[in-house]
Specification:
The chain is of the alpha/beta class and 230 residues long. It folds into two domains: 2-91 and 206-228, Rossmann fold (3-Layer(aba) Sandwich), CATH 3.40.50.300; 96-200, 3-Layer(aba) Sandwich (Rossmann fold), CATH 3.40.50.300. 35% of the residues lie in helices and 29% in strands. It contains seven helices and ten strands. α3 (109-119) packs across α4 (124-138) and α4 (124-138) runs antiparallel to α5.
């Protein structure tokens, strides 16, 4: 398993931006990341990013909001395609970028477990064990058979977190450290998350906390306005 990222550049087009010329000029002067191309504006979210990770590596992405951390994680997950550079990933990706992504409120908790397991590529022969683990860990009991729209926000997060962490990861992507539930459940979730991270062959984590980066990761990548700094 590995991640090999060479000179990765990602841009987003912004159409109908002529009506916001003043705002565009201010943003361009502030960041230098906006450009006018063929009548529309492009935003350079990532510019010439290069790094390589092997099994056992833990990489912390550091930087202020808007520096490109989440964009890079989404590129690694295959959500965004680069306009330049190469990105090669070998290994099954588990993502904790948005734990509730893909949850269907009209479906029951049980149906959401099955749906998310399918989307995560979990083999059918493992599904029974996954269901048992998620129900036990989330502590939803009989609520697992009710529509998710009837859950409190805390119950939704507990279910989503339990599903996302039910399968041993190979490459784990995290956007900030996850905190779930009340004090009692939070300690339980923290223990499960630590175990989940330790089992991952490769970890890439965005964080604002330099101390957390030092404690968890063996490599760091600092981003400023979409670019790597020394």
């Amino acid at each position: 398993m590995y991640i090999d990222c060479q000179h990765l550049t990602i841009q987003f087009p912004i159409y109908n931006s002529q009506q916001r010329s003043i705002k565009r000029s201010l943003l361009s002067a502030a960041s230098g990341r906006l450009r006018q191309v063929a009548g529309y504006t492009t935003v350079t979210a990532l510019d010439d990013i290069t790094f390589s990770l092997q099994e056992g590596d833990r990489l912390a992405l550091l930087g202020h909001n808007g520096c490109g951390k989440t964009t890079l994680l989404r590129a690694l997950a295959g959500v965004y395609s680069p306009i330049a550079g190469q990105l090669n990933v070998s290994g099954r990706i588990s993502s904790l970028l948005d734990a509730t992504l893909g949850m269907e409120p009209e479906l029951t908790g049980m149906e959401n477990i099955k749906l998310r397991s399918l989307l995560l590529g979990i083999p059918k022969q493992q599904l029974a064990n996954i269901i048992e683990d998620v129900i036990t860990f989330s502590e939803l009991a009989e609520f697992i058979y009710l529509p998710v729209r009837t859950y409190s926000s805390g119950m939704v997060l507990r279910l989503a977190f339990a599903i996302c962490t039910a399968r041993t990861p190979e490459i784990l992507l995290m956007d900030e450290w996850i905190s779930v539930g009340d004090a009692t459940f939070k300690a339980k979730a923290e223990h499960r998350l630590n175990s989940f991270i330790q089992q991952a062959a490769i970890l890439v984590m965005a964080t604002h906390d330099p101390q957390l980066a030092e404690r968890v990761c063996n490599q760091q990548l600092q981003l400023v306005q979409g670019k790597m700094t020394a």
